[in-house]
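Notes continue from the previous slide.

Worked example: a multi-chain complex. Inputs as given:
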Amino acid sequence: MSEDIAPEIVLALEIDDPALADRLAALLGHIAGLRLAEPGEKAAATIVTRDPRIMPEDIALTQRELDVLALMAEGGSNKMIARQLGISVHTVKFHVGSLLDKLDATGRTDAVAHAARRGVIEL
Amino acid sequence: MSEDIAPEIVLALEIDDPALADRLAALLGHIAGLRLAEPGEKAAATIVTRDPRIMPEDIALTQRELDVLALMAEGGSNKMIARQLGISVHTVKFHVGSLLDKLDATGRTDAVAHAARRGVIEL
DNA sequence: TGTGAAACTGGCCGGATGGCCAGGAAATGA
DNA sequence: TCATTTCCTGGCCATCCGGCCAGTTTCACA
């Protein structure tokens, strides 16, 4: 290896909160082996704000609902989800119904979108 | 305020590349006013690798398909989308069909998830 | 022991979804 | 002018979805 000296890591900053962004920039601005990216520059990694996403209190989803939700996000049909979880289609529908209620969604697509928005699931 | 002395910023590290993660951890490990988050700890910000997300070249969606896609992501039914865009339900189905093809999705929920994943739409 | 929450299952049914067929209209560029 | 692309519309139909009804089991907690 030729660059065992320290190939300077370029970090990008994508923080909404101006105060936090400033403090981070100040702290990270003069560290050897590390540099903040110029606007538009390609960075090795990015510092992002951890979703202060609206998430009242996890909206209290049960474990099973989370299972179903995850498979919904993968595009699974009720039938496929039922097979995956080893339960009946009726039960899947039951959980989907609960999810639509709790997530205030109009359908499964909306439910997945809502859940993703508030960080309940990761797409 | 009692902690105006240095509210120590907690940073989380979510890097796939072990080498990069190690170097960052080493660099950031002992900076005054900054601390790396314990596993599971809530952090003020997170360092992530910049998604080299698979996005061949925007996957060439037409404007109308983007319109339909956006409304799908809002949980709109074919009927609602048709009303919104002032076109027939049949035409909406037509565009939805094209989207399923291009996004390689099994259904509208999967299509929205795929599109969100590769940055075609923003949830 | 009772009480409640969670998970599970079933039937029924109107409406939504997605795939197939067929076509027409307008704009772009060869 | 012709060809291509995009957008638009229709019918038909098997399947899926979601909401309604009803019920059972299991487990934790009072």
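Summary box: Chain A touches chain B at residues 9, 11-12, 15, 20, 23-24, 27-28, 31, 33-34, 42-50, 72-77, 105-110, 112-114, 116-117, 123 (CB under 8 Å). Strands of chain A lie at 9-14, 34-36, 45-49.
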